[in-house]
From TrEMBL:
Major location (coarse): cytoplasm
Lineage: Bacteria, Bacillati, Bacillota, Bacilli, Bacillales
The keyword NADP belongs to this UniProt entry's keyword annotation: yes
Entry protein name: Pyrroline-5-carboxylate reductase
Organism: Paenibacillus phyllosphaerae
Cellular component annotations (GO), alphabetically ordered: cytoplasm
Family: Belongs to the pyrroline-5-carboxylate reductase family.
Keywords on record: Amino-acid biosynthesis, Cytoplasm, NADP, Oxidoreductase, Proline biosynthesis
Length: 294
């Protein structure tokens, strides 16, 4: 693969790559949908398979025109023929999947993992050979091109492969290269992050309904408020704290609301939640590492 890329036509180079998605759940779909929507992949070169859910494969085939298979030999062909293999199964299924892959993976095949907690070292252990590995932590907003992805590389990833990986994740949102040791933090902040915002939105909609808004009005007002707030931070370049102060009139409604939030230790709760998510990512990585030793 190293001869494929010049910096000027990286996008067309990526389009010529054969991609295999080992796992066909939410995250695999988010990446495929994002890459296709941005014209950065050719559906005829994408293969996807899962463990047992045939109906899910039919859905993906009809939605994206990708190749799918529930036949083991065909799945092995997809893996063997791929330039890039995406590991998109749950952490608990990773060790078994990687052991299977170790039997035939070739040194030039790029492995891209999105699995929370799973370290490059454990992937290498399970593959039992040096391999170019890109460890990432994206999020589901990649589906609409607004993902946020942290990326780390194994030592054997060459410059072309770095560019390929970076361009793929930049095409489906923003991507930042971080030290591998920080990927668990990225998981806590942005990997799980969309769920925190949805959780907040659920509560805002519920409050609106309880206070008499129709469900539709509560939902629409909440969506626009979150969208507007995120855009304001980005468009103005001001800090969230400054923008918050501009909403908060002395002794007004916002101050009253924020005081209630603080009495429930809202900020502290969010900080502790993100620390716990990141700690949990490390625990999940250790669990896979232990099963790799067996
Ligand atoms: N969801 C999210 O927001 C994010 C998830 N991640 C990471 O992405 C990974 C996938 O998560 P997500 O997409 O949510 O999970 P899903 O449960 O939606 O999908 C997992 C997929 O893996 C398949 N699978 C499991 N074992 C095997 C196997 N041995 N061979 C082939 N396919 C297999 C499952 O098949 P079947 O259904 O047939 O069992 C399913 O298609 C996780 O490791 C997670 O940490 C990272 C960032 C964000
Ligand atoms: O909840 C999880 O474990 C995965 C990782 C990041 C988002 N979802």
């Amino acid at each position: 693969m190293s001869s494929l890329i010049s910096s000027t036509d990286i996008q067309s180079s990526i389009r010529s790559l054969r991609l295999c998605f080992y796992g066909a759940g939410s995250m695999a779909e988010a990446i495929v949908r994002g890459l296709l929507a941005r014209g950065l992949a050719d559906s005829s070169l994408i293969g996807m398979f899962n463990r047992s859910n045939a109906q899910r494969l039919e859905e993906l085939e009809s939605r994206y025109n990708v190749s799918v298979s529930n036949v083991e030999e065909e799945q092995l062909d997809m893996l063997q023929d791929a330039d890039v293999i995406f590991l998109v199964m749950k952490p608990k299924d990773a060790a078994e999947a990687l052991r299977k892959l170790s039997a035939f993976i070739k040194p030039n095949q790029l492995v891209v993992s999105v699995i929370a907690g799973l370290s490059i070292r454990t992937i290498e252990q399970l593959l039992e050979q040096p391999q170019p590995i890109v460890r990432t932590m994206p999020n589901t907003s990649s589906t609409i091109g607004l993902g946020a992805t942290g990326i780390s590389f194994s030592q054997s990833v060459n410059d072309d492969q770095r560019q390929i990986a970076l361009a793929m994740f930049e095409a489906i949102g923003m991507a930042t290269i971080v030290e591998e040791s920080l990927l668990d933090v990225v998981t806590g902040v942005s990997g799980s992050g969309p769920a925190y915002i949805y959780y907040m939105m659920e509560a805002m909609v519920e409050a609106g309904k309880q206070l008499g808004l129709t469900p539709e009005a509560a939902r629409e007002m909440t969506i626009q408020t979150v969208l507007g707030a995120a855009h304001m931070v980005k468009a103005t370049g001001e800090t969230p704290a400054d923008l918050r102060r501009k909403v908060t009139s002395p002794n007004g409604t916002t101050q009253a609301a924020l005081e209630v939030m603080e009495s429930y230790r809202f900020s502290e709760g969010v900080i502790q939640a993100i620390k716990r998510a990141s700690e949990r990512a490390a625990e999940m990585g250790e669990e896979i590492e232990r099963s790799a030793m067996k």
